[in-house]
Amino acid sequence: MKIGILGAMEVEVQELIENMENIKEETISSITFYSGTLQGKNVIVARCGVGKVHSGICTQTMILKYAPDAIINTGVAGSLNADLDIADIVISDNVVQHDFDTSAFGDPMGLISGINLVKIPCPKELVQKIKEAADTIEGTNVVVGTIASGDQFICSGEKKDFIVGNFDALCAEMEGAAIGQVCYINNVDFCIVRAMSDKADGSAHMDFPTFTQIAAKKSTQLINEFLKCI
């Protein structure tokens, strides 16, 4: 089984790359792809860049060039749920694009043109395997649910309420649903893993870099545990 792993920022994939063996590098469309083994499994790791366009380009390139059996997007997100604190983990069972809006034409908020879905589903078996790996990490609150993506850094209560009210999402970030859309179109399994780096309301602004490091390390730990058990 070959697993593709994507992260938007260097901090989200750096430790994974550093621990890979038999590593080969190739740069395509300004994105460096690292292929090799991690925890004895075949992997391709890439830093896609921030936002839906970057992540979509990276995902499609990875699929065409390396043909992974599944793609996991690891990283950090802003919590939209009062019960989710810094470094808690959300595993997607579906993803939505909260900024996709053709409601002026009578469509539901978030309906993606071309695939006619609001919530793009993740394969249940893959989600369950990642959840089982997450449950081995001590002292970590792990939940499964909707992850919302958009080309916006969410930092206001009003926007949080909008996303939760329309999509019942647990956390917000900027790449996962674009990755999910590309995988869905290509019939490639995917799942999004996010550790909470902030509360998406501006309250952690001054400590965001510190919290991001903590959260990214927790996501990396989960990926390693998942690879051990597949």
Structural class by SSE content: alpha/beta
Query: Which residues sit in consecutive blocks of at least 5 with pLDDT less than 50?
Result: none
Biggest sheet record? 5 strands, mixed, barrel
In total, the number of strands is: 10
Q: Which strand-content bin applies to the residues?
A: 25-35%
What number is the mean pLDDT? Answer: 93
Fourth-tier CATH superfamily name: Nucleoside phosphorylase domain
* CATH architecture verdict: 3-Layer(aba) Sandwich
**CA-atom Rg in angstroms:** 16 Å
Please state the overall shape, judged from the principal axes of the Cα atoms.
globular
Cα separation of the termini: 8 Å
Q: What is the fold named in CATH at topology level? A: Rossmann fold
Question: Could you explain how this protein is built, in words?
Answer:
The structure is a single chain. By secondary structure, the chain is an alpha/beta fold. It has a single domain (2-228), classed as Nucleoside phosphorylase domain (Rossmann fold, 3-Layer(aba) Sandwich). It has 6 helices and 10 strands, in the order βαβββαβββαβαβαβα. Strands 5-9-8-6-10 form a 5-stranded mixed beta barrel, surrounded by 5 helices. α1 (10-18) packs across α6, α2 packs parallel to α5 and α3 packs across α6. It is globular and about 50 Å long.
